[in-house]
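Question: Hello, beginner here. Any chance you could explain the protein record under this note? Any guidance would be welcome.
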Amino acid sequence: MSSATAHIPPAAIGALCLLSACAPPTPERAADRCEQRARLAQGPSGSVTVGVNSSEGPFLNGRVAISADYLDGRDPLLVYRTCVIDLTGAEPIRPPRLRIRR
C-alpha cells in the first residue's frame, strides 16, 4: 500500500503562516476593525440575555465591554484614524460609522 503525499518542509509551512498573518488587511477590513475600536472608545457597551429553557429553567447572562481608549478619554475619531493608519499605512477610505450619541 503506497501513499502519494507531498512532503512540505516545516520551515515552509512556518513561512507561509507568517506571511499570511503579516499581510496588511484590506482598507475595508481595516475600516471595519477600527470602527469597532472607535465605538468602544465612545463608551462602555454591553448586552443582557434573559430566557427560559426546559432543561435548566430561567437564566440570565450579561456582558460589558470597556476599552482602554475610553478610560484614557481618547477621541473616537482619532482612535479610528490612528488605527487605520497603523494597520494599512494609509488614511481611512471612509469616515467611521459610530454610535449615535443621545
